[in-house]
Amino acid sequence: MKQDGSYDRRLAENKTKIRKSLETPQPAIALSAANALRVWDVTPSIPERLPEKLLRESRKIELPRIPRALLFINANDEQSLKAAEKLIRKLQDVRIVLTSGSISEASERLNRRIFFDQGSSLVRSFGIRQVPALLFNGETGPQCAEFPADEPELVLPYLRS
């Protein structure tokens, strides 16, 4: 294989595939675009097979405050990127989490570090079904809001000052 060059071709192909998968990871869950505002309290997920006494006690535990807001967007959607740009101007300390799309393109456009929800674990944990979505500290604890990409200002009244 080395003599006829097929080894080098295959190595180059594999490097390209790996680079592409790192640049644009495959989303585990395909999320649709939000078309209405939906706000909910984030609740802890507790296994139902715990003894009854522990289940009752676990319901009394308050969730900790989150250190910064997380904005979940689909970087393949132009409207989601525009919504992120608007919210970044209003919320200085927000982290961008992609559910789909190119990490480097989103990072370059938004001029900040971008995270990717690998395996959609965060989306599942917080109950997000549509994007864009914002996880933030509400009045009573962590809350999440899905909102239409063309109306990011809908979530601003819910944010603590």
Distance between the termini: 64 Å
Order of helices and strands: HEEHEHEHEHEEE
> What would the average pLDDT be, to the nearest integer?
87
Strand content range: 15-25%
The stretches of 5 or more residues where confidence is low (pLDDT under 50) are: none
Count the DSSP helices. 5
Q: Shape from CA axes? A: globular
Lay out the secondary structure.
Blueprint: H1 6-23, E1 32-33, E2 38-41, H2 52-58, E3 69-74, H3 78-90, E4 94-100, H4 103-110, E5 114-116, H5 121-126, E6 130-131, E7 133-137, E8 142-146
Parallel strand pairs: 1-6, 3-4, 4-5
Antiparallel strand pairs: 2-8, 3-7, 7-8
Plain-language structure description:
With 161 residues, the protein is an alpha/beta fold. The protein has a single domain (28-158), classed as Glutaredoxin, CATH 3.40.30. The chain is built from five helices and eight strands. The chain has helices spanning 6-23, 52-58, 78-90, 103-110, 121-126; strands at residues 32-33, 38-41, 69-74, 94-100, 114-116, 130-131, 133-137, 142-146. The longest helix has 18 residues, at 6-23. The chain starts with 5 loop residues before the first helix and ends in a 15-residue tail after the last strand.
